[in-house]
Amino acid sequence: MNANDLPITPKTEPPAAAAPPVSCGVVQDLMPLVRDGVASPESEAMVRAHLDECEDCRTLWEALSTQGPAPAAQPDDSAVLHKVKARVSLWLLIVVVIGLLLGMAIMGSGRAIGLVFVIFPLTCGIARWFDDGIWKLVPILAAAIVPIQSLPSLFTMMDYTTPASALFSYFQGVWMPASLLAVICLVGALTASLLRYAVKGKGKKQ
Fold first, then answer.
1. Is 98 helix (H, G, I), strand (E, B) or coil?
2. Between 20 and 30 A from 157 (CA), which of 15, 49, 124, 182?
3. Dihedral (C-alpha) 122, 125, 127, 130: value to the nearest 10 degrees?
4. pLDDT of res. 56
């Protein structure tokens, strides 16, 4: 018998290593994905195979299944509204500052004083139209412009008279124009309030 006549023993492949068991923690992390139908087929098969063998995970799965899919997150309307109001308030403050500075510049120049009776009520009216609180600052700040611009005259009067007399003359000279500026600002706010009420009332009727 030669070597070629020897029986050939077929080679046998080594047995495949068994897949390591899946821990309960991994399965429980995958359960919500399987429940919502977003898990891969392999992950779903792994979870269901584990549930056939683990009573604790099966109990948890049954409790999780009764809850239904997780609700989609809803936007926080109050937070969105707060951001919009904050942005509008910022722009209104810019408008108010520009209006007050423009009116102050006109008063300081002594030219086109008639524009003061347009700028201040218009500024206050715009603030009143868009916001219920910011407009209240406009009459106060407008009235404060007069005593601020008159401070140099107060120091000049103190050089020629007593401080008490200078202060008396100072307040006597500023209270009336300051009050006038506050009043015309209030007129602008009142006009804006009436217009806003008329527009909203008309919109409700339609």
1. helix
2. 182
3. -130
4. 84
Residue with tokens 């810019």: 94
58 close to 90: Cβ distance less than 8 angstroms = no
Chain segment 38-81, per-residue pLDDT in tens: 888 888 888 888 888 888 888 888 887 776 555 554 555 666 66
Q: How many CB atoms lie within 10 A of CB 78?
A: 8
Alpha carbons 10 and 3: distance in angstroms, whole number:
16
CA–CA separation, 112 and 27 (whole Å): 80
Average confidence score pLDDT of the chain: 81
Q: CB within 8 A of 194, min separation 6: which ones?
A: none
pTM for this one? 0.56
Residue 201 in this model has a pLDDT that exceeds 50: yes
157's CB contacts (< 8 A; 6+ apart) are: 165, 166, 169, 170
Residue 11 has pLDDT above 70, yes or no: no
CB 120 within 8 A of CB 103: yes
